[in-house]
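Lab meeting, item 3. Inverse folding demo.
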């Protein structure tokens, strides 16, 4: 009789394969990182500090990059690349590509106005959010402003002890009958996501009155709340209202990363899509020094809005980087040849099955918390539209390495076939000829202001990326 255990396939649970102390130790560093880094610009600054401390060569400035030397390329302070080339570039790279932007609210170019005893900022939401999730919570303001005189101001308000925070109001339930009759997408509309930034008007100041003038006794004037906010911004930061035209300011949740559950097995935090995969990719690269392979870590911006722009994966910055690297290596090789011979992982999160919302996932092909990073052979929606579909040959080569290294992983799709779906940067890199597949940590409440991840899945994602880089 056949041994049925050998014939059947069953997933493994990370917590039953790895010591808890090992998992918790790695998770602590990640949670500290999440509290430091909440925007794509902050991630680039974090990366810049690491590469400078470790002596990486700036590809844009050096004349030569010798075999085995680590290099970096900072693309306009919003996307970033680090790598090491030990052999000929024509042999290609092992690439892990993640994105470092997250759903959020952006401050509009002319944001400040006053109404009903409040000063507010107008916002424009960024990426796929449920708008109603962003009201009645503490929010921080992070970003950069260039003053009219050309000087730069970096703002991070709300994250330090003693800082003020901001919020967006909502209707009281007593008066919300019409609001609650709307569909979820319209319960809170985009133009109503207005950030409360002040509420105190200036003191009354009496007009100067000439002796004997007919207007003697005229009512006192007062500075408006908007005026008081402008005076505060000028006094504290040297800002003029016009300076908002030269600003990139983001509104993000004020939450710190915290343990979830009695057993502390989950992490609750903002921005884990996709900083959880980006962090694991970075740590895997820093831990990988063996082998003769060329390695490249790509941290892109703009994935949440289609990977457009000069810092997104649809730009040609990767080709430019490789052309620049070939020049510094003294090699005559086309970037497209390098990319065609490269093998990659699109390091992006996936949704996992939620027991409170049954029927959304195909039970045979869904991710679950605690069973390791999710491998997605294809992305896209419905009939695999806009999909990157990895070949069986490429998957076979990867899984052989992962199995040899004892990696716990699972396969999953983003929901049932006709319910929706989603894309990653994999399709844009595949268009350049690279073999690539999506592998990333599963999340609950993805794209919400407070996403949940398993510490076990976090650690195993890191382990899988290490395995890929050295395998």
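The presenter then showed the designed sequence:
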């Amino acid at each position: 009789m056949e041994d049925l255990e050998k014939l059947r396939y069953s997933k493994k649970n990370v917590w039953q394969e790895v010591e808890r102390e090992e998992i918790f130790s790695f998770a602590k560093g990640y949670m500290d990182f999440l509290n430091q880094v909440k925007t794509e610009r902050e991630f680039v600054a974090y990366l810049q500090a690491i590469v400078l401390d470790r002596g990486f060569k700036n590809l844009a400035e050096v004349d030569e990059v010798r075999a085995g030397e680590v290099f970096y390329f900072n693309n306009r302070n919003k996307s970033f690349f680090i790598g090491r080339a030990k052999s000929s570039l024509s042999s290609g790279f092992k690439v892990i590509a993640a994105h470092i932007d997250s759903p959020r609210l952006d401050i509009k170019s002319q944001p400040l106005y006053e109404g009903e005893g409040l000063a507010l900022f107008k916002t424009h939401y960024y990426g796929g959010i449920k708008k109603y999730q962003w009201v009645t919570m503490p929010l921080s303001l992070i970003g950069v402003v260039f003053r009219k005189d050309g000087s730069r101001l970096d703002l991070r308000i709300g994250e330090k002890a003693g800082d003020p925070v901001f919020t967006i109001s909502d209707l009281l339930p007593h008066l919300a009958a019409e609001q609650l009759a709307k569909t979820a997408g319209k319960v809170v509309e985009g133009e109503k996501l207005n950030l409360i930034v002040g509420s105190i008007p200036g003191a009354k100041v009496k007009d100067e009155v000439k002796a004997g003038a007919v207007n003697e006794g005229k009512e006192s004037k007062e500075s408006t709340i908007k005026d008081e906010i402008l005076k505060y911004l000028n006094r504290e930061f040297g800002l003029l209202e016009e300076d908002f035209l030269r600003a990139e300011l983001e509104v993000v949740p004020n939450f710190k990363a915290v343990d979830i559950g009695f057993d502390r097995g989950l992490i609750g935090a903002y921005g884990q899509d996709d900083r959880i995969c980006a962090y694991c990719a970075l740590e895997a690269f820093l831990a990988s020094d063996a082998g003769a392979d060329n390695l490249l870590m790509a941290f892109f911006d703009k994935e949440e809005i289609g990977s457009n722009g000069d810092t997104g994966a649809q730009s040609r910055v990767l080709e430019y980087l490789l052309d620049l690297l070939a020049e510094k290596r003294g090699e005559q090789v086309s970037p497209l040849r390098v990319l065609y011979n490269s093998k990659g992982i699109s390091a992006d999160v996936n949704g996992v099955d939620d027991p409170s919302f049954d029927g959304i996932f195909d039970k045979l092909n869904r991710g679950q918390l605690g069973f390791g990073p999710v491998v997605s052979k294809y992305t896209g929606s419905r009939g695999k539209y806009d999909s990157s579909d990895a070949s069986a040959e490429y998957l076979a080569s990867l899984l052989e390495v992962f199995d040899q290294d004892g990696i716990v992983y699972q396969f999953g799709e983003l929901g049932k076939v006709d319910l929706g779906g989603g894309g990653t940067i994999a399709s844009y890199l595949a268009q350049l000829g690279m073999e690539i597949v999506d592998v990333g940590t599963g999340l609950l409440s993805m794209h919400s202001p407070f996403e949940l991840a398993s510490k076990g899945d976090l650690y195993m994602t890191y382990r899988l990326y290490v395995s890929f880089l050295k395998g």
